[in-house]
Description:
Order of helices and strands: HEHEH
Structural class: mainly alpha
Strand content: 5-15%
Strand order of the largest sheet: 1-2
Number of helices: 3
Mean pLDDT: 83
Radius of gyration: 18 Å
Low-confidence stretches: none
Helix content: 55-70%
Largest sheet: 2 strands, antiparallel
Distance between the termini: 46 Å
Amino acid sequence: MEMHETIPALVYDVHASARRIERIDSDLKDYARPGARGGPAAFDLNDAVQRGIHILTHLIQRKTTHFRLDLAAALPPVRGDAQHVE
């Protein structure tokens, strides 16, 4: 009976981990191509921060249960490399 409960949970965890690895791999490939878009460009700082947090979600969840992200509203665009900010 225990196997009927344990195996689906294990399969779910493996699948979730594979999705997380796929996202991290994709994010790292994007990061490895700095300037691929042709130099500094205007970008939304809040979006870059959220993408950076997305990369670190697993680590943050392992280290703390008190993480809080407060983003400023209506920031002007920033010029630079968004991937380096991430």
